[in-house]
Design goal:
Helices cover about 80% and strands about 0% of the residues.
């Protein structure tokens, strides 16, 4: 069994906080914004959805 030092635990905690507080929300906003932008551009080029 590997013994984890306190420095490794601190680093792991900092990485966890970075991922959960900064990276995950940023990526989700980017994905939703990108999809919205793609739909917006497609509607500009092809018109709104629905029967013609």
């Amino acid at each position: 069994m590997k013994i984890i030092s306190s420095d490794e635990k601190k680093l792991e905690f900092k990485i966890f906080i970075f991922l959960t507080v900064f990276l995950a929300p940023l990526l989700s906003v980017m994905v939703v914004g990108g999809l919205g932008f793609a739909i917006w551009i497609s509607q500009i080029l092809m018109g709104p959805p629905g029967p013609s």
